[in-house]
Structures are given as C-alpha cells and as structure tokens.
Amino acid sequence: MTLIKSISGIRGTIGGKAGDALTPTDIVKFSTAFGLWVKAQTGNAKIVVGRDARISGEMVRNLVVGTLQGIGIDVVDVGLSTTPTVEIAVPLEQAGGGIIITASHNPKQWNALKLLNNKGEFINDEEGKKVLEMAENAETEFAPVDDLGKVRQDDSYLQKHIDQILALPLVDVEAIKKADFKVAIDCVNSSGGIFVPALLKALGVQTVHQLYCEPDGHFPHNPEPLPENLVDLRKLVTDKKADLGIAVDPDVDRLCFVCEDGNAFGEEYTLVAVADYILKNQVGNTVSNLSSTRALRDVTESAGGEYHASAVGEVNVVTLMKEKNAVIGGEGNGGVIYPELHYGRDALVGIALFLTHLAKFGGPISALRASYPSYFISKNKITLTPEMDIDKLLLQVEEKYKSQPYSTIDGLKIEFGKQWVHLRRSNTEPIIRIYSESATEAEAEKLAKEVMEEIRKLLNDRRSE
C-alpha cells in the first residue's frame, strides 16, 4: 500500500490502513484541509469536482463531495470528466478551487486528489505544503446543519470545452474536414471514451474506429500511453487502414499518436509537432521540462524563438511559461500546454491542433514525424529502498561528472554535447527516474547503463563502509 503527498497532489493505492494508502480516512482528511485552505486563501466557498472513470472514482467522489459540504463549501460536480475540462470549469464557475479525482496514468488500484487554485491551475509547492500542514494540524470545526454546502450537478462542460477549442484561431475545422482523416482511438475505458469521440465529431472527422471507449474504469492494458501498451491500437490502425491512431491516458491530459504504418509517432514528439505548428504561425518561446527531448529546442531555435527548460512537474512548466511568455509548452510525456486556451496539459486541444497541422502538412503522419530532428530517449528507473540517501547519492554522481555541463534545478541533469542524462526522484512513485537521450536508441541505452553502473558502484561502496 502506498500514499504519496507531493506537488502532484495526494496519490495512493485504494485499501489498507489509514496513513499508508488512499483510504476513506485520508480522503476526508485531505479534502477537509484543501477546502479550508481554499476558503482562507480566496474567501470563496465554491469548489469544482470532477473525476475520471476509475473503479474507485465514485467512492472517492462521494467522500470528497460530502466532506466539502460538511465544511460549508458548495460543490459544482461535473461528473465523469477530464483534468483539462475541470481546469477550464474552475474560472468559468468563478470557484475558489478544484479537485480532480484521478491518478492519471497509474494502474487501476491507484487514485488521487489533484488540487487546483482559483485560476484552474495546479497549486504550487509552497501552497501544497500549506495544505499538508493543515491536514496534519488543523482542528476542524464543521458546519452546522443550516450552513452545509450545496451540490450542483453540471454536465455542460464537455460542450463548453469543445466550443472553446473550436473557437481557437489556429484550429482549422475546414482543413480537418477536407483532409477526411480516418482515425483509430484508444481511450483506455476512461472518460476519454466520452470526450475524444465528441471532439472528433465536432472537428468534422467522419470515420472513427473506437477501441476501449467504455468509461467503466476497467483498463484493458497499462493505462500509460506508451508504444508497448498500445499494441491493440497499432494493429487497429493497420487493419482499418487508418491515417493515424490517437491514444490518451485516463484523465486525458496526455496524448500520443500512432502512424499509418502502425509505428509509434513517439510521445516525446507530440509536443514537438504541436509546437512546430504554433511556431509556424506565431514566433515565440517554448518551455518543456528537463526530461523532455532536445528536439523541441531544435525546432524552437530554427523558428527564431528561445527554448527554456523547467523542473519536472506541470506547475513548474506553467510557472516558467508565464515567466518567459511562452506561446506553447508542456512535457515530453505527451502533455501539451497551450496558453491561448488555458495553462494546463490538455490532450483535447492537442488533438485539434495536431490534426490541423497534419491537414495543412498534406502528407502522411509518418512523413511529418520524419521531418523532425531524430532523438531517442531511454527511460529507466531504480526502485527506492528506505535506507537510500538519495540527496547524498546525487551529490556523489554530480562530483563524478563535475567537468560536464550540468543542472541541479530538479535532481541532476548532465549534458554530453547533444546527449544528456537526467536523474530525479519521482513525484508519483517510490523510484528514481533515469532518462537519457542521444541520436540513436543504442547510444541512449549505453549512456543510461554507464550512469546506472556508476550509481550501483556508489551504492555498493556505501554498503561496504
């Protein structure tokens, strides 16, 4: 059983003992703290709540909504929804904050409370620490019967989200219609099964082959939209002779594509392609996190803009995007942030912009992918154990490679020319992530293995002390 409290929210496995997992006791505790924080920060006693289709979602929703009512907060319940849709709903509702009940790409035994401020953006690290402090120390006084919060169900935000996307100047519905794309989709039996088909219909896509679009929370495969998890979608694309495949994660903030030949477009290149389209129409800066592909930097600089790298975590990317006035940004895991709509990863706006780009490109999606600088990222991890001193370990690795350019903004990123390796503690799992990038898969793997071997030596030396 696991419970992780971080910048990404309160995330844990369902079942087990309070304090060791995301139990009803913990859900009430953290919902109470967040509700009180929202009221204290904004004086606004309204919160928007939405969820993905996880099996535990209804149970968690009932506890969250009831708890917020119990401290005198009115709830706008948008029901089965997406993370970006809730982000859009918060400011439209003039609410004090929002809670999205989803564990994003984690397997079905996980769920989480993702916490939004009154702008519909994730709360920052300092604010998150305050909520956690309140959860541990607050002596809550609940509302008397006449002051209980009210609940309003609102299922209008699917259409409101789509309408806002269609209104964007760089979304060209006529071009998409004219292209007459045949599209296959995999929505992993979550809320994307409702939202993605509705968006494609609104964009004029006539032929949509649906795979796993029943929002019942029974994920048919690992829900992270990586090539190895999309075998069925890749087969569907080739069997149906589709122009492309589209896959999203359970809360629809991550997006990836499959080429017409069944090969993966690459989740790292979702943002690269969308940024390429935006930069063709608007010169400006871009931002991604330290673990994202160098290809975005290459595309940005060739378009006359400046590229900037942030610490991992959506809130960090958004903060730097605002600081650098970026026209597009996101994360290499398939997360597209388009500030013209809102400051949050949004697979739906990513789909609309990508299809417009592909329609105007005029060739197959595989040719579009081939037009970008080619890099390969090797993604590895080391499972943490209680006795590991991660900070000390990273300092030792830093000392080992101190002659190379490096960054300690988030963990440790070391550059070797156009190659790099990034070591950091995960925000969502008890692991160290080790990402490396090079011009070929073999070179990226070789670099990762060299650094991992160095880490193993350091750990063995420490054990022998």
Textual characterization of the structure:
This protein is an alpha/beta fold. 39% of the residues lie in helices and 22% in strands. The strands form 4 sheets. It has a 7-stranded mixed sheet with strand order 1-2-6-5-3-4-7, sandwiched between helices. It is globular and about 65 Å long.
Short description:
With 465 residues, the chain is an alpha/beta fold. The chain is 39% helix and 22% strand. A hairpin with a 4-residue loop joins strand 17 (406-407) and strand 18 (412-416).
Distinctive features:
15 helices, 5-stranded antiparallel β-sheet, 7-stranded mixed β-sheet, alpha/beta, 20 strands
Fold topology:
Layout: E1 3-6, E2 9-13, H1 24-42, E3 46-51, H2 57-70, E4 74-80, H3 83-92, E5 97-101, E6 110-116, H4 125-137, E7 151-153, H5 157-166, H6 173-179, E8 182-186, H7 192-202, E9 207-211, H8 231-239, E10 244-248, E11 255-258, H9 268-281, E12 285-289, H10 295-302, E13 307-310, H11 314-324, E14 326-331, E15 335-337, H12 347-361, H13 365-370, E16 376-383, H14 390-400, E17 406-407, E18 412-416, E19 419-425, E20 431-438, H15 441-464
Parallel strand pairs: 3-4, 3-5, 4-7, 8-9, 8-10, 12-13, 12-14
Antiparallel strand pairs: 1-2, 2-6, 5-6, 10-11, 14-15, 16-20, 17-18, 18-19, 19-20
